[in-house]
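User: I'm preparing a small set of examples for a lab meeting where we compare how different chains pack in three dimensions. I only have the primary sequence for this one, and I'd like the structure in token form so I can line it up with the others. Please keep the answer compact; I'll paste it straight into my notes.
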Amino acid sequence: MPPPLEYGAGTNVGLVRENNEDCYLSRPDIGLWLVADGMGGHEAGEVASSIAKDYINQSVSSGSNLKQAIEQSHHAVKEAAANNIGSPNMGTTIVVLRINGIRYDIAWVGDSRAYLWDREKLQQLSTDHSYVQELLKSGAITEDEVANHAQRNIITQSIGVSNLKNVEVGQVNGVLKPGQKILLCSDGLTDLLADEEINEILHRSYEENQALVDKLIVKALQNGGSDNVTVQLISAPTQDTLANEIHRSFLHSPFGPLIANKKRLKWLSLGLAIGLVSVLASIISG
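Assistant: Understood. Below is the structure token output for the 286-residue chain.
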């Protein structure tokens, strides 16, 4: 197993809410992180987010992919409500990250978000399941109108909502490069900080991820703290980790036994060199 990636994580109830319905999971040992934003106020939003978190943790640990785990967590929250655990009105949004070597997979439901920070710029990877996103997609509103739209907090998908038989799971994947970071957050951050403000804080890349997470949360509180806010920041593999990953990949390739056996590799290299010289000599003499 490659060494665990550096990350920072934190959550805060905010300055207005009485309870924290957000939760997060950090499992660097298996490359799994998530942020869940429960809904329902005192109608047990925190129960829904906790059930989804625990179910996805267990499901992914047992071999399920992210889409399967999220879909199953939807039914788990609905089943809990049917058995009088929590509330019939509870639900949660969620965003989940899985990193395997240099590859990442992200899946989400609702408006909890994932961003990629690439040293100089912040790029939103997830696409909100929200009413304003539908308006934007249809051309009814512009990008500039999204942030201040009166109905920007209306979501169209969430885990556990009783009238949804199944949930639509958004997915994206890619390859991480050294120096990049992935940010996961609830809308308690993005409703109060514009992408430019988040990007400005992340530019202090000389600071550790935990310090950057703390600064993002403090900034959300300074901007009003009107919601629970949860943030995770995960660094891409380092150059050493990438080198180890490449070496490990070769060891598991058809050439692995040759690479593992240094003596045999030495003679193979010598043979290839002699063969190359022979071919060159033949071309020159010809």
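A couple of notes for your slides: The chain is about 40% helix and 20% strand. Residues 7-237 form a domain with the Phosphatase 2c; domain 1 fold (CATH 3.60.40.10).

User: Perfect, thanks.
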